[in-house]
Specification:
With 144 residues, the protein is mainly alpha-helical. It is 57% helix and 12% strand. The chain contains 4 helices and 3 strands. Helix 2 crosses helix 3 (73-86). The radius of gyration is 27 Å and the shape is elongated.
């Protein structure tokens, strides 16, 4: 038995030494299954680009919904929409609705403008995918 453990320790030592000599990184083209990995990488990049374009278009649509309610839309509209989309929110499901309540923004006039965009979105009566629940958006009142 003692010899068997010695062989195992020698094998571990050889493998450890071999591992030290391996490059930290190798080019993707030299990796096993490189062609498949490169194809997946290209497909992933394509999907990422499509999602970025869709997000940009959605932002643009929300900016247009903001325009009638916010005087500085031309200068700050996209930034305000991005801020609202990144703000914290609560999601409260009921039997028929999924209520998304955004946290108040940095100033009352910005919160009011986003609340008016929420009203416009609510009039569209959007159904949450895969359910029959209507999405309802609002902005919480600030805690004073």
């Amino acid at each position: 038995m003692g010899g068997h453990q010695g062989e195992s320790a020698d094998e571990v030592a050889k493998l450890t030494e071999r591992q030290k000599n391996l490059p930290v990184r190798i080019p993707l083209a030299k990796a096993p299954d490189a062609e498949k990995a490169m194809k997946l990488s290209t497909e992933r990049n394509h999907l990422t680009n499509i999602l970025k374009m869709a997000a940009y278009q959605i932002e643009g649509t929300l900016v247009e919904l903001l325009r009638p309610h916010y005087a500085r839309t031309e200068d700050e509209g996209r930034t305000l929409i991005q801020t609202a989309l990144r703000s914290s929110a609560s999601i409260e499901p009921t039997e028929k609705e999924l209520h998304v309540k955004l946290a108040p923004l940095s100033s009352p006039h910005r919160s009011k403008a986003i609340a008016l965009v929420c009203d416009t979105l609510n009039k569209m009566e959007t159904i949450f995918p895969g359910t029959d629940m209507r999405i309802k958006f609002s902005v919480s009142e600030p805690n004073i």
